[in-house]
């Protein structure tokens, strides 16, 4: 039975899903990071290959029946990056006996859109480790705002929320702000007891962007318990992300009444963040319809591959 595989390569984790051509899930699991910007191209590629091998080892699916591999990768927009990935994976699939599998490389925003609304045009706001606003016009024009990485601009991302959480802990310790539930949660999560110990933790050479983003979770948890500092922080980051959405919508008239998919763990885990984002957005753009992404981006990637495989199958040789 032919099937397609979808992969969502994130900075923290990679999801893989295998689907029938009708979209029914056959297998799926999660592995380590495969964002080339976070771990380098070679490590990202070998993680993806490892997950493909595991899929074929642990399920009855055979490489020969694979009709397509869709891969959504954060930050992969340029044609030369897509070609590099496509060449590497196509070559490897041929060697492994998946001779008929077409390879569809897209960025993770395109797979989120396709998986959620079943079409290529629309807008997606991603708030995961990083953040980005990405839109595709009905003519296929691809536009973006933000997503420039943690130093140049990742407003409203897990990283930014994590960083602000740590700063809030220090502000509270310094007596500039009242006590916050974020302090105890953030410190105990990394086995520390005093805020000043955070300095060694944060500036350790091995510390990564993902380690800082991990603290966003304690901000979200504190907000759910009514902590006012956490609520303020999450609201401010949601407003900053909505400002990026507004900038994107101004770039093309079709976006003013488009569907906007909300993707990434921050939207998934914080209703407050979602509502603050929507409230700010709808002040200027009341006709934009938001949808929380409920499928996995790996599902979207596999559906895109199925669509491309179908299109390729219809083309005369
Ligand atoms: N259960 C949870 N509750 C709250 N926040 C969470 C939870 N799990 C993960 N997060 C936060 O979500 C962020 C990671 O998001 P996500 O898993 O969507 O990113 P990613 O796909 O690895 O990264 P990216 O797509 O940006 O490369 C981190 O900031 C983390 O703190």
From TrEMBL:
The UniProt record lists the keyword Transferase: yes
InterPro entries: ATPase_BadF, ATPase_NBD, Euk-type_GlcNAc_Kinase
Keywords linked to the UniProt accession: Kinase, Transferase
ATPase BadF/BadG/BcrA/BcrD type domain mapped to chain residues: 5-304
Gene3D superfamilies: 3.30.420.40
Source organism, top-level taxon: Bacteria
GO molecular function, one term: kinase activity
PANTHER family hit by this protein: N-ACETYL-D-GLUCOSAMINE KINASE
Name of the protein described by the UniProt record: N-acetylglucosamine kinase
Source organism (scientific name): Paenibacillus chartarius
Lineage of origin: Bacteria, Bacillati, Bacillota, Bacilli, Bacillales
